[in-house]
């Protein structure tokens, strides 16, 4: 199921730190304060009417529009000494600094971050996808990062006997069973992965599939089989989560006993470490303990490479332990669909705000509600929007992506024109004096950029930390983030407003700026007279200058 997510990125890894997302002070769209840890935000909406059939996907990673066939131009790198995303470069040349989309997009599979969902497919298939993403990065000059999303050990359906989906109708009787069926399986029969399912349910219980996309009422129990009548029809998808409600309350005792990371998840994590993915997202996180355990495991197995751990907030337990989970993790996704199956619907908006498009599964246009949903996420200045099912198996993946892209660009443009990017109240995230200095420098640089209407902010960062601090300020102008390593460049591609470049630079800021100006002017990405404000990891100062 596609879902609306919020992604909060703290700075835990020693060589790659990401700041806490601050409170947004816009009075029309208030956001509740988050715990005092370093974060950034991503929201992944769902355009569910694009979901139905599997098709091949293109992997554009930048901010520009692609052509009708999804083709993007390749970028010549190496000869110029600087690397930047191909489509971003094309957009900057064509439309200028202010045209770039600040909100990033995550797709299964593609755009700024390629998500691989371990609920589906074999490890061999996912390995092929990873290889394709990396090959396109090399050939096209993209910087697409890879996020591996674990399955988790919550109760869920099987694979529908190989079918991509199944439609339900009101009043139909379906059988949910723990039995293993041969081929072909009985009509309207679904496997459940939890052996105690038939024992735990009671006649009269309400069974929610995929966060409430389809609803059933339990009518009869016959041994290992549970007969259910469809009360709210929709589309069933393989591996969808199942939740039980009884007398208006969630039945959560059994799920609470299941481990957060299953034995299969550990094998998938080993696979992700071996493949060098950039992010590992852990499903149904209940406490900080599992995050700390996993990060220790990755540190021992990853041989020096940095893999960020993302906690998926999908249960009531996640909300109860929200602060400690965010403190421990490198980021947090809020899965609104799954969360909505575990709390009353009227509480979902406030839960989403605290942690900060479902009709496009089968239809090629978004509903007004879905567009409004995306718009609100962009207005809250989330780092990114994510598509899952719509782009993974939908009938209209490119149209779903086009909706996200066009709505994001339009809302961002309106906000800039309305001067809604007023000063933000930022919580302190540094624990050392040097960190506090870096925060103040970035806060001041962002304010100067807004007040002076600078064309761009430049940040030279080896770890990504200063770029993240600038991103959380949400300045009006784009942020050119220059880093020396490919892995940091990929991870920065996830954060709001950052345009990551790979560039060799020294501790001499004057030399770095002269080199950068020369390279970017030669590529037509900047011009003489552009106003630039620069900061760096190496020099605790702010430099303001016009491009010579």
UniProtKB/TrEMBL annotation:
User: PROSITE patterns of this UniProt entry?
Assistant: ARSC
- Where would I find the Pyruvate kinase barrel domain in this sequence? 104-400
Q: Which cofactor does it need?
A: K(+)
Q: In which pathway does it act?
A: Carbohydrate degradation; glycolysis; pyruvate from D-glyceraldehyde 3-phosphate: step 5/5
User: Keywords for this entry?
Assistant: ATP-binding, Glycolysis, Kinase, Magnesium, Metal-binding, Nucleotide-binding, Potassium, Pyruvate, Transferase
For this protein, what reaction is catalysed?
pyruvate + ATP = phosphoenolpyruvate + ADP + H(+)
Give the EC number.
Answer: 2.7.1.40
**InterPro entries with a match to the protein in the record:** Arsenate_reductase-like, Pyr_Knase, Pyrv/PenolPyrv_kinase-like_dom, Pyrv_kinase-like_dom_sf, Pyrv_Knase-like_insert_dom_sf, Pyrv_Knase_brl, Pyrv_Knase_C, Pyrv_Knase_C_sf
What are the recorded GO MF terms, alphabetically?
A: ATP binding; kinase activity; magnesium ion binding; potassium ion binding; pyruvate kinase activity
* Class of this enzyme: transferase
Keyword Kinase found? yes
Q: Which residues form the Pyruvate kinase C-terminal domain?
A: 439-538
**Oligomeric state and partners?**
Oligomer of alpha and beta subunits.
Output the PANTHER family linked to this UniProt entry: PYRUVATE KINASE
Describe the family membership recorded for this protein in Swiss-Prot or TrEMBL: Belongs to the pyruvate kinase family.
**Protein name from the UniProt record:** Pyruvate kinase
| Organism of this sequence | Gossypium mustelinum (Cotton)
Q: Taxonomy-wise, where does this protein's organism fall, top ranks first?
A: Eukaryota, Viridiplantae, Streptophyta, Embryophyta, Tracheophyta
């Amino acid at each position: 199921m596609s879902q609306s997510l919020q992604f909060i990125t703290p700075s835990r890894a020693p060589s790659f730190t990401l700041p806490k997302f601050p409170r947004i002070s816009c009075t029309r769209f208030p956001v509740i304060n988050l715990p005092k840890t370093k974060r950034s935000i991503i929201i992944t909406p769902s355009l569910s009417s694009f979901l139905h059939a599997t098709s091949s996907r293109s992997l554009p990673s930048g901010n520009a529009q692609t052509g009708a066939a999804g083709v993007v131009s390749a970028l010549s790198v190496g000869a110029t000494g600087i690397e930047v995303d191909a489509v971003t470069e094309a957009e900057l040349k064509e439309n200028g600094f202010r045209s770039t989309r600040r909100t990033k997009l995550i797709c299964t599979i593609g755009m700024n971050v390629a998500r691989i969902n371990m609920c589906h497919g074999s490890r061999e298939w996912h390995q092929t996808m990873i290889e394709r993403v990396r090959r396109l990065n090399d050939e096209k000059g993209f910087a697409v990062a890879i996020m591996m999303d674990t399955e988790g050990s919550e109760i869920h359906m099987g694979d529908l006997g190989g079918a991509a989906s199944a439609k339900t109708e009101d009043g139909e009787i379906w059988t949910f069973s723990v039995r293993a069926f041969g081929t072909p399986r009985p009509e309207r029969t679904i496997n459940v992965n939890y052996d105690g399912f038939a024992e735990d349910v009671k006649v009269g219980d309400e069974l929610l599939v995929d966060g409430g996309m389809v609803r059933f009422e339990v009518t009869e129990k016959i041994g290992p089989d549970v007969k259910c009548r469809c009360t709210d029809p929709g589309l069933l998808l393989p591996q969808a989560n199942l939740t039980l409600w009884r007398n208006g309350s969630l039945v959560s005792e059994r799920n609470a006993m299941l481990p957060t990371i299953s034995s299969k998840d550990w094998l998938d994590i080993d696979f992700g470490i071996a493949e060098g993915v950039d992010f590992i997202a852990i499903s149904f996180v209940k406490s900080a303990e599992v995050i700390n355990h996993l990060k220790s495991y990755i540190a021992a197995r990853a041989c020096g490479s940095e893999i960020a751990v993302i906690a998926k907030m999908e249960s009531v337990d996640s909300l109860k332990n929200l602060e400690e989970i965010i403190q421990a993790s490198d980021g947090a996704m809020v899965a609104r669909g799954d969360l909505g199956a575990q709390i009353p619907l009227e509480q979902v908006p406030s839960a989403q705000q605290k942690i900060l498009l479902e009709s496009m599964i089968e239809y090629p246009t978004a509903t007004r509600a879905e567009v409004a949903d995306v718009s609100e996420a962009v207005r809250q200045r989330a780092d990114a929007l994510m598509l899952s099912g719509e782009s993974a198996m939908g009938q209209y993946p490119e149209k779903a992506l086009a909706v996200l892209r066009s709505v994001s660009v339009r809302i961002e443009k309106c906000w800039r024109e309305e001067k809604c990017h007023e000063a933000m109240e930022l919580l302190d995230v540094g624990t050392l004096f040097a960190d506090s200095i870096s925060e103040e420098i970035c806060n001041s640089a962002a304010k100067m950029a807004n007040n002076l209407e600078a064309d761009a902010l430049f940040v030279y960062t080896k770890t990504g930390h200063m770029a993240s601090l600038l991103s959380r300020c949400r300045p009006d102008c784009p942020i050119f983030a220059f880093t020396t390593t490919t892995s940091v460049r990929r991870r920065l591609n996830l954060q709001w407003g950052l345009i990551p470049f790979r560039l060799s630079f020294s501790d001499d800021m004057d030399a770095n700026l002269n080199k950068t100006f020369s390279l970017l002017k030669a590529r037509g990405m900047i011009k003489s007279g552009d106003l630039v404000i620069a900061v760096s990891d190496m020099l605790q100062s702010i430099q303001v200058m016009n491009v010579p």
